[in-house]
Write the structure tokens for this entry.
Amino acid sequence: MMELYLRRRYYPEGTNGEISYQQRTVCACIELPWRGNRRFISCIPEGRYRLVKRMHTRWGEQLAVANVPGREGILLHPANDALTQLQGCIAPVTKCTAPGAGNYSRVALDRLKDLVYPVLDAGEEVWLVVVGELVIGGG
């Protein structure tokens, strides 16, 4: 079993985070601001979620976040601006550049997939533990 940690920082304009494995940073990430877990406009709640592979007819193989309360279709996919490119999903980025914004998302996603896919392919479980670090500006 693999357990990744997503440590978040909340801002009114977006959520920034860092995904780590065994206390080593894998990548940064961006999400929508916390808005009460409302579909399409909020990041997902803090918690422990299983990551699974999902096949999409248009986008191919993707990483999905399973069993999010009150939500479905939550993916880890490339995006560099949470407010214009995300609807509740998580976007790995190489570096956060502002609240809810980052760069080189595809590079970061490939780094995450290189770590996670061999574990999933071996039939083992991968979990994402989402925790908050701090709320800035009332989030």
